[in-house]
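in:
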């Protein structure tokens, strides 16, 4: 189970760490330095790259997590904290799926059409949902650490 834990944590670090960097470091600087059209194009390109890593992270987190659950005897025999981490992780994945297939597609469509106002609204929606996922990620990490 040691290798699975390492893979699981690496997936979490990439996803949650990437959200933290984008939200707390990159966003304020980009918003300050780039005018709106360039900023929106920049974020579209950043998300195109980052979301590939998020998909990979989700795949690794889900596969390793489910395998560790099966090694623990399945869903009927888990400690409460594991149920909680699984539930929060599932919410995070659903939020990301919404961001990717709805808000991010809108952002790409509006940037291509040079509808900067609508693209800005789509970007705000992505920002809010990534902020929510960042908080959920921190809560999940805290649950994992406080139980050990």
């Amino acid at each position: 189970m040691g290798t699975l834990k390492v893979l699981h944590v690496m997936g979490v670090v990439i996803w949650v760490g990437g959200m933290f960097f984008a939200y707390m470091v990159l966003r304020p600087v980009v918003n300050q330095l780039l005018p709106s059209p360039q900023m929106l194009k920049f974020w579209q390109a950043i998300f195109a790259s980052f979301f590939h890593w998020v998909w990979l992270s989700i795949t690794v987190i889900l596969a390793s997590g489910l395998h560790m659950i099966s090694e623990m005897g399945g869903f009927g025999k888990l400690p409460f904290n594991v149920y909680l981490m699984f539930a929060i992780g599932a919410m995070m994945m659903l939020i990301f799926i919404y961001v990717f297939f709805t808000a991010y597609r809108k952002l790409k469509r509006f940037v291509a059409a040079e509808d900067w106002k609508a693209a800005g609204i789509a970007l705000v929606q992505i920002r809010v949902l990534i902020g929510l996922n960042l908080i959920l990620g921190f809560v999940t990490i805290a649950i994992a650490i406080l139980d050990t």
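note: The two ends are 15 Å apart (CA to CA).
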